[in-house]
Amino acid sequence: MVKGANVGLAALSENTDAVVVSLGWASPTGEGDADVSVLLLDAKGKVRSDADFYFYNHPVAPDGSVQLLGKVPSGEGSEDRIGFDLTAIPAEVDRIVVAASRYEGARFGELDDLRVTLADGAGEDLLRFTIEDAGSVSAFIFGELYRRGEEWKFRAVGQGYDTGLAGLAMDFGVDIDDDADEADVAHADALSAIGYESESGSVSDSGTDVSGTDVPDTGVPGSDIPGETDGSAPATAPTVESDRRASDQPTSEPLPAVPAPRRAADHSEPDRATARPRTAKKKITLPKTPKKSLAENESWRGARLFPVSALKSDRDRETRATSVLLSVMAQVPEFGRRLTAAFGAPAGRMETFTEVSLPHGDTPRRPDGVIRVERAGKLWTALVETKTNGNALRPEQVQAYVDIATRRGYEAVITISNDVALEGSPLVDVKIDGRRKHKVALRHLSWAEVAHQAQLLIRHEGVGNSAHAWLLQELLHYLQHDNSGCHGFQNMGAAWVPVRKGIDDETLCPGDARALEVVESWERLIRQVCLGLGGELGQKVLPVQRARRGTDPGARRARMADELCAEGKVGAELRIEGTPGVLAVGADLRTSRLRTSVEIPVPDQGYPLTWIKRLLRRLAEAPADLHVEALVEDGPGGPRGTLERLRPEPADLLPKNGERITGFRLTLVKGMGSGRGNAESGFIRSVDDAVQRFHSTVVVHLEQPASRRPVAGAVAGRPGG
User: Fold this and answer.
1) 3-state helix, strand, coil in the chain (%, to 5)
2) Cα gap 491→520, rounded to integer Å
3) Contacts of 235 (CB under 8 A, 6+ apart)
4) What is the DSSP letter of 424?
5) Cα distance between residue 508 and residue 607, in whole Å
6) Strand runs labelled E in 15-133
7) Are the C-beta atoms of residues 571 and 561 closer than 8 Å to each other?
8) What is the pLDDT of residues 188-213, one digit of tens each?
9) Residue 94, pLDDT above cutoff 90
10) Contacts of 610 by beta carbon, 8 Å cutoff, 6+ apart
11) Which among 721, 720, 719 is positioned nearest to 54, based on CA atoms?
12) In what order do the strands lie in the sheet with 640-642?
């Protein structure tokens, strides 16, 4: 699409009741990022209340109509996805603005390949809008969904706001704190290029229509599906804080003003002054320290809701794992919705089934499970196929389920196994009959992703009641038990030993297919490490994709395989939300050493020796063998030494020739496991342990970016906290 163009979704696909909009960008350094936001607007171009403003602190609509699904890495950098259930959008909502904002003085012009894509309920991309002229703005409207009669349409907007998130939100009617500085809350300039008006936030329909002629607007009724609240009102009002989060570099710019919560309009009773904004009912998370056991000794084992002691065969494990997972999804709405929203499922009443028999030729097929979601009289159905203990998915089996789903009008086939799917490299190749109009989405979940989502809910974000929290805890215990077979990626593959031997005797040649297999296994391992660490911390942990490595996943992996052949090394970088720098992890197969490191910038003010002493004080509890290196301007590196040596002599880290220090690199080196599996001596466990140890002993002691500071009248933290 081009800027200003619009298109009807019904002309592109028959499966647009639920859509996923993805905002993407790339950064030359791999560190650039932005936060998505969504505004639901009425016919006047204003939000009905601040509850119509969705962002990082208010990510989900109670009726499931809007859900911020979070960031995922892509070959071009990263993508931030938003799920919309268009059948649940209230009738009084006329259009939906999809935007993003940057923080701490960053601008969208510093990012590459700005783009927005829209996919239907089957996961098929319907449109793409690439933005080439973002300019020096800190907030940007990518596009909007709007009604024309009974139809939803999409417009490619591509317009920025100099005043950031605050200016964008205020222009669409979100309240701004009255005490905020006027210079910080000034309205954005009129967006005359595409018909936006600063006062009303409206957009003219003057863009090119690539689907047909617009008709007068009419509302399409929606319906609320109650969750843990009574369904009569949003469970929480958004709480925006003045700083999204600090960047690695301090800034002297004034903090932007941001929207403060307000109540939805209620004409049934007079307005009453309140001492503080309304907050939602407190959500339940499990205590970090469990209660002391009443067991007489350690040999006593508590009774479990999902026992694993009787599992003796792979078939037993698959059957039990499927039943346990699907039953918890149906009983804990927050968890079930979390897993299915990314697959295009609507928000509604969910039921799950196991061992269902479906006709297929002469022999009926029995998928491991079926998920059905009912919304406004419509059914969304997915067939589920699970594998445990590292067993691979069978292409012919998955193909049969895709064929059955196509014939019966089901929406998706979901595969679950210990393997991790890679972008551009599907786990199972299936053939789609192009003659059929109905399309089926084939999606994959790793057991590690299932455990990750359960961890986030019960340890950090909370669920509606204590019974739900207990169910999720039982599920997590089951998945993590040695006998369940649901342990995530655990095998580097058959190529691991030959590649290591080829590197040792220098016989591994560029282009060897086995090296590419090891690189793919390495990427799967890194994605799983991110899931595990993110679940423990309750923060986003994502692999960094450098723009200079190219946009094609296959080409990028081929280059990494050639580097492995030439140098015997593989590496990756992880960005952990709320921590300084990027955590780098590398494996040297020649020396059997693992290296974890992070680079941190120096403050804008002060003296080098003061910086060094302050850093050493923060690292007082770090391992004595931690390597500290001073990074110098226009040089390969400066002085370095271990903490043990530098603690009594911090001046040893000062460059002798007076070069300017630009930052510090902290590095830990340890031996790596040789086995291809996840045993004590295995490579997979050694990588996971190295990342966990480096984060817990080094990164947590570093000076963290400044936390978001709430403005007057705003409540910090997650909704309902």
Assistant:
1) 25, 25, 50
2) 12
3) 62, 227, 228, 229, 280, 281, 719, 720
4) T
5) 49
6) 18-26, 35-41, 53-54, 66-74, 77-85, 95-101, 112-119, 125-131
7) no
8) 333 333 233 333 333 334 344 444 43
9) yes
10) none
11) 719
12) 541-543, 569-576, 583-588, 593-601, 661-671, 627-632, 640-642
What is the rounded distance in angstroms from the CA atom of residue 229 to the CA atom of residue 62? 8
For residue 490, the model assigns a pLDDT of 87
Token pair, residue 173, equals 């009617």
- CB neighbour class for 393 (10 Å; exposed up to 12, middle 13-18, buried from 19): middle
Say which range, 60-64, 122-126, 547-551, has the weakest mean pLDDT. Answer: 547-551
Find, among 560, 561, 566, the residue nearest to 514 by Cα. Answer: 561
The helix (H) or strand (E) run that includes residue 480 is helix 466-480
Q: Among 283-287, 317-321, 542-546, 612-616, which stretch is predicted with the lowest mean pLDDT? A: 283-287
Q: What mean pLDDT, rounded, does the chain reach?
A: 79
State how far the Cα of 458 lies from the Cα of 435, in Å rounded to an integer.
Answer: 45
CA 267 → CA 43, 219, 270, distances in Å? 19, 22, 7
* Cα separation, 269 vs 9, whole angstroms: 41
**Residue 386 near residue 367, CB atoms below 8 Å:** no
At 503, list the tokens. Answer: 């590197």
Three-class SS state of 333 = helix
Helices (H), 388-465: 395-408, 447-455
Between strands 112-119 and 18-26, the pairing is antiparallel
Give the H or E element holding residue 167.
helix 164-171
Higher pLDDT, 219 or 524: 524
Query: For residue range 624-641, what is the model confidence (pLDDT) as tens digits?
Result: 999 999 999 877 778 999
Give yes or no for residue 250 having a pLDDT over 70.
no
Note whether 618 and 649 are within 8 A (CB): no
What confidence tier does 556 reach under pLDDT thresholds 50, 70, 90? confident
CA distances from 359 to 150, 364, 426, 431 (A): 37, 4, 27, 19
Which residues, at least 6 apart from 467, have a Cβ–Cβ distance to it below 8 Å? none
Eight-class DSSP state of 602 = P
Residue 720 in this model has a pLDDT that exceeds 50: no
**What is the phi/psi pair of residue 361, to 5°?**
65, -135
